[in-house]
User: Which sequence fits this backbone?
């Protein structure tokens, strides 16, 4: 879990901005965030209608999702500039930039928000989905150390990565795993939230549960989703288990004992436990309160 995350991002559901039924339901869903998409889930001749829907939803909605992120089209496209102007005027919790290649892409979006004095609460998120982004990952993530950049998280874009590299997508994701692990590593270096990519086979919830467990084991904070049926399994997989909580509590309790005060390392049930494990345990207990 990134040190910077003060709220959960276990389940982050994409919905096309053209899907008014989905938007109407967004606030009632148990996902930690929704990403309203103006990009790849919206066909070219629907871009204007999608923007109109999005604006209407923001202006009339009675209740909000836990967090709302808007995915705009890349600035290099004919829709990017209009999307950004609209998105910043709506002041969502986040704006997700697709096809990011370099830190400059994020800095320029940040400047466009600063120019209009958009509140600091509007964060930027970066899709990591191009070969260039993979190669520039360290420099991109480093922006997370500068609050002025607004960068809050990295989102793995596995479909585009596969498309642009030719890598084969297999059920066990074996060829994608090295890149996914790099994304987690970069996010930690930059103090950013890391979100795993989507699983396209949305009807296979058994396989989805396995992929969530894998993402959690890899250190992701949560997963991006495409269907509401994926919300509960993701929330479960990215929340600490009862066993994790019990172990963390035991570590906290052990260090709280008077005989362990001031000790850097102790023995607990046949295992070496250091103060770094105490910090880790405290963080896990914090996350458990989100569940
Ligand atoms: N967010 C919110 N609600 C959604 C949803 C989503 N992503 N996907 C489906 N639903 C809703 C449907 O609107 C439907 O509700 P309704 O009965 O009130 O109309 C209900 O869930 C059941 O939908 P279902 O029939 O199971 O799915 P579908 O076949 O209509 O749609 C997809 C399947 C994949 C096309 C659709 O889930 C989708 O568009 N997902 C998001 C795609 C996306 O945004 N991609 C971009 C990033 S990869
Ligand atoms: Mg993409």
Assistant:
């Amino acid at each position: 879990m990134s040190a910077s995350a003060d709220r959960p991002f276990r389940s982050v559901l994409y919905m096309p901005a053209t899907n008014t039924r989905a938007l109407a339901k967004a606030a009632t869903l148990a996902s930690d965030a929704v990403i309203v998409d103006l990009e790849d889930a919206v066909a070219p001749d629907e871009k204007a209608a999608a923007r109109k829907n999005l604006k209407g939803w923001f202006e009339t909605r009675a209740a909000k999702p836990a967090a709302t992120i808007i995915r705009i089209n890349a600035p290099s496209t004919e829709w990017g500039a209009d999307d950004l102007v609209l998105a910043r005027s709506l002041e969502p919790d986040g704006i997700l930039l697709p096809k990011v290649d370099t830190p400059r892409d994020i800095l320029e979006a940040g400047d466009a928000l600063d120019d209009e004095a958009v509140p600091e609460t509007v964060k930027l998120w970066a899709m990591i989905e191009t070969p260039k982004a993979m190669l520039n990952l360290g420099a991109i993530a480093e922006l997370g150390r500068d609050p002025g950049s607004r960068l809050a998280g990295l989102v793995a874009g596995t479909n585009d990565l596969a498309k642009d590299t030719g890598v084969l997508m297999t059920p066990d994701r074996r060829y994608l795993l090295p890149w996914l692990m790099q994304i987690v590593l970069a996010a930690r270096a930059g103090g950013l939230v890391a979100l795993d990519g989507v699983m396209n086979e949305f009807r296979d919830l058994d396989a989805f549960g396995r992929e969530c467990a894998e993402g959690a084991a890899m250190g992701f904070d949560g997963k991006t989703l495409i269907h509401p049926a994926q919300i509960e399994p993701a929330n479960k997989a990215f929340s600490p288990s009862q066993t994790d909580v019990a172990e963390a509590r035991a570590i906290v309790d052990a260090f709280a004992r008077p005989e362990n005060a001031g000790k850097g390392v102790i023995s607990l049930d046949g295992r070496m436990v250091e103060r770094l494990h105490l910090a880790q345990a405290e963080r896990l207990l914090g996350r458990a309160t989100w569940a």
About this structure: The chain has twelve helices and ten strands. The mean pLDDT is 96.
